[in-house]
Amino acid sequence: MPELPENEAQRLTLERECLNRTIEKAELGDDVSYIELPGSNELGRLKGRQFTETWRHGKNVFAGSKSGPWITVHLGMTGWLIPFDAPDDTPDHTKLLITFEGDRRLAFRCPRKLGHVRVIDDPGAYIGEQGFGPDALDIAKDAFCKVVGSTRGAIKSALMSQDKLAGIGNLWSDEILFRIGVGPERRANELSDDELEDTFDTMRELLKKGVDVEADYAKLPDTWLIRKRDEGGGCPRRGCGGTIRRTKVGGRSAYHCDTHQS
Ligand SMILES: [Zn+2]
Predict the structure, then answer these.
(1) CB count, 10 Å around CB of 114?
(2) What is the pLDDT of residues 201-259, one digit of tens each?
(3) pTM for the whole structure
(4) Ligand 1 centre from 243 Cα, in Å?
């Protein structure tokens, strides 16, 4: 599932390709049952408007303008925003298509229908209403240590709780814990202050790197877990010699090293 780095890459795509262009129409694609998309009145609100700014909070991408309206996009498992120019064909599985003046188009492709698009008035108010915690790249260290360190559940689950901290999912929670040598099932409230601070610093470092490469994971070092998520495979950390194990934590697959993480 796309996490903070993918969503930031999508925000950048919107910023580069879709700002300051008047929207001629916004329409639904084919096969749009069982996916949440704006109704015709909401789509009509976009007509004649421009996106002049973008924003991202956790796994939510926004485009809009000071006076609104905004669209908010959640990618779900397989969603992706794809700008293109007519007369190129609209991508398959397009659920929403925005036509800008001239040739520019923006498709929301979502084959598995687990994402959504909404039309809203104000991103800040929306984030509050939805109950999301601070963005993982915005939260301050003391706030992070307080909210994560007071969680009784597994550290992996705490990092993935969008109401505590927005933006981290399965992949990046595993990567952070792999780096700091903490097992995914350790209780968050049993981490020492030093371990919590290490978790915070590492989270920022890794997420920033993921953002820098625009979520192109082939560009990340091959000593990272993200490159070697294979049950039974060798640990990619230099000199470790451990084996990568796959377990379930809070119903999600967790990959970790059986030797340097505890
Ligand atoms: Zn290892």
Answers:
(1) 16
(2) 999 999 999 999 999 999 999 999 999 999 999 999 999 999 999 999 989 899 999 99
(3) 0.96
(4) 7
Quick one: pLDDT at residue 82?
98
Whose CA is closest to 2, among 67, 84, 80?
80
Give 141-257's CATH code, choosing from 3.40.50.720, 2.30.30.520, 3.40.50.300, 1.10.8.50. 1.10.8.50
- What number of residues does the chain have? 262
Ligand 1 centroid from CA 226, angstroms: 13
Q: Which CATH class is domain 4-130?
A: alpha beta
**Which residues, listed in sequence order, are joined to residue 105 by a DSSP beta bridge?**
84, 99
* Ligand 1 centroid, distance to 228 Cα (angstroms): 11
Closest CA to 43 of 66, 22, 24: 24
Whole-number Å distance, alpha carbon 186 to ligand 1 midpoint, is 16
Near ion ligand 1, which residues have CB within 5 Å?
235, 237, 240, 242, 257, 259-260
Distance 256 CA to ligand 1 centre (A): 8
The CATH 3.20.190.10 domain(s) of the chain lie at 4-130
Mean residue pLDDT of the chain comes to 97
